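Lab notebook, design round three. We kept the backbone fixed and only want residue identities now. Task for the bench partner: fill in a sequence for the structure below.
Input structure tokens:
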């Protein structure tokens, strides 16, 4: 039972990182739309995009580390709770990376190409 609690705590940690990611992504898009300019790639837009990429990479690495812990913990769960532990496993690494990368690209493109 303690193992299940630990698995749920790790799932909660992933949710917190995703929530932070969503807030930062929307905030960065909002700030980029507030820039006044001629519509070109201003230095501020490029710096904002680079800052977001650095944040996105660190967020990705943190979530990957926690997901690795979740997989390892789910393997430790005893038989009566195995089905619950399987439900607590994260999506495959490929699906996770594709999802995160597609949002990253969309945010960077919106910073650089959309103008307020």
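Proposed sequence:
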């Amino acid at each position: 039972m303690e193992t299940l609690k630990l698995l749920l705590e790790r799932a909660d940690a992933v949710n917190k990182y995703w929530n932070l990611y969503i807030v930062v992504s929307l905030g960065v898009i909002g700030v980029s739309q507030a820039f006044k300019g001629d519509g070109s790639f201003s230095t501020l837009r490029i710096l904002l995009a680079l800052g977001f990429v650095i944040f996105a990479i660190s967020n990705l690495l943190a979530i990957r580390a926690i997901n690795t812990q979740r997989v390892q913990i789910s393997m430790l769960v005893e038989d009566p709770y195995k089905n619950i532990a399987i439900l607590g496993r994260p999506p495959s690494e490929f699906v996770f990376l594709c999802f995160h990368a597609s949002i990253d690209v969309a945010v960077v493109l919106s910073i650089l190409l959309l103008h307020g």
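Keep this in mind before ordering anything: Helices lie at 2-34, 43-74, 82-87, 93-113.
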